Amino acid sequence: MSGSVKRHARLFGVLLAIGATLALVIGVFAGAGTAANAAAPPAYTSIPTIQGPADVPFVADTLQATTGTWSGHPTSFSYAWDRCNALGDRQGCAPISGATSASYTIQKADVGHTLDVNVTATNKAGSTTKNSKGTGIVSDKVAPKNYVLPSVSGNATIGSTLTASNGSWAGATSISFRWQQCDASGGSCADISGATSNSYDVRTGDVGTTLRVKVTATNKYGTTSETSSHTAVVSGRTTTTTTATTPAPPAGSSIPVDKVSLPNRLVVDKLSFSPNPTRSRGPIVARFHVSDTRGHSIQGALVYALGLPYSWLRNAAEVPTDASGWATITLQPTAAMPLQRGGSLVIFVRARKPGDNLLAGVSTRRLVQEGISR
């Protein structure tokens, strides 16, 4: 063998050895990476989302969940849809039976609720669950329905700007505004020419009057309008007021729950059950009316009903009161509830203001009963 051939042979052997070493090192690091990835359950880096008409959902619409993004190399995902209260704050959420796929078709039972989806990501080390943001309030195929009245913030003084909030609506595909000027006591209201945006600059001609905004929500089924409370009487000087104040509404009228504060309290003053008495283990439709200690019907109070003994009824979601102060809750008896003449089902009812401590604030509690027969 010539010297040149020998040199090439030695060089080739060295290259083979280097290649083998690199392969070994890469394999070690790759194995370490795999072990590290499998050492912890997945962690989300962006939350799941709901695609489709999530902002303005209607009965029969189909929603689609995305997984979000995750670290930890998930090997599978699972889904569970929730039905929550109308305020969209994940209070009163309850799983929807059978809703465990990535898509969900909205049902009649969802009307007046918001929806969200829980996505569970799984790898060899375990599972992690993260929920999406909630949808808008589900509407049936009807004109928009208001759940929280519009409001006005700002100073009722010349040169100040008032700003309107939409309030909270179900089924509103568009919103429009109309500012109105009223007399000092809040009567004789008339539209202000050209004042159709969500803000209004207080003018000299407004002095001595009160102002409010009318919000109109529209969809293909119709329109619905609601007005805000009135501002204070407009003055020509600046005050420290940052939120428009409201004259006390007359007893018997309906007001939003955020207008109730101590020493006033909520009261569950009326109720009804259908059927009454119950003669089967079919659904019981319970209706509870909430007022305050001044006699106003309360809109937007959260009502919760719990059967006693606990095993006799399935847990039901917390439900907000409507514009007339009524909350409707469907109670589902279990097989443990005995059907016997002269029996009774005791129900614990709570009404509260969103955001208050569950055991304090303006909340109220009451025990009621539904008759049981054969």
What would the CATH topology of the largest domain be? Immunoglobulin-like
Strand arrangement, major sheet: 6-5-8-9
What is the percent of helical residues?
Answer: under 10%
User: What spatial form do the alpha-carbon principal axes imply?
Assistant: globular
Q: What is the CA-based Rg, rounded?
A: 30 Å
Unreliable runs: 28-36, 238-246
What percentage of the residues does DSSP assign to strands (E)?
Answer: 35-45%
Query: What would you give as the CATH superfamily of the largest domain?
Result: Immunoglobulins
State the end-to-end distance. Answer: 108 Å
CATH class of the largest domain: Mainly Beta
**What is the level-2 CATH architecture name of the largest domain?**
Sandwich
Description of the molecule:
- There is one protein chain.
- The protein is mainly β and 374 residues long.
- Helix content is 9%, strand content 39%.
- The chain folds into 4 domains: 1-35; 43-131, Immunoglobulin-like (Sandwich); 145-227, Sandwich (Immunoglobulin-like), CATH 2.60.40; 254-372, Immunoglobulin-like (Sandwich), CATH 2.60.40.
- It is built from 1 helix and 27 strands.
- The relative contact order is 0.11.
